[in-house]
Amino acid sequence: MVAERSLLFTALGLIVGTLAVGVLGTALGMSHVSAAVAVFDPSMKATLLARGVSEAMNCTLLALGAVPLWLAPFVVGVIRGGGRR
Fold first, then answer.
1. 16 — pLDDT class (breaks 50, 70, 90)
2. How many CB atoms lie within 10 A of CB 2?
3. Domain count across the chain
4. Cα–Cα distance, 40 to 64 (Å, whole number)
């Protein structure tokens, strides 16, 4: 029982950590986009905008990748338990 509980908390911590990193990276990427628009000269804006959007999209993908990790322990538990609660 204790091992199951600590495994649950470990899985929950990993999932929340992955989501937090994804959201933080998305916010930082969009911050870089805003800085590129506000500060840099027009010749560099396109490159910097593309980099910032790419960073934001990659981090969003990382966060969305955590959703199957979140669902997997519950699916395995239902399969092992035969759907009983």
1. confident
2. 6
3. 1
4. 31
Q: Judge if pTM exceeds 0.70.
A: no
Instruction: Flag whether 30 is in a domain.
Output: yes
Residues spanned by the domain of 39: 26-75
Residue type, 10: T
Domain assignment present for residue 3? The answer is: no
Task: Work out whether the CA dihedral 60, 62, 63, 69 comes out positive or negative.
Answer: positive
Question: Do residues 62 and 25 lie in contact, with contact meaning Cβ atoms separated by under 8 Å?
Answer: yes
Render pLDDT for 36-62 as a digit per residue (tens, 0 to 9): 888 888 888 888 888 889 988 988 888
Distance, CA of 18 to CA of 44 (rounded, Å): 32
Q: How far apart are the first and last CA of the chain?
A: 16
Count of residues making up the chain:
85
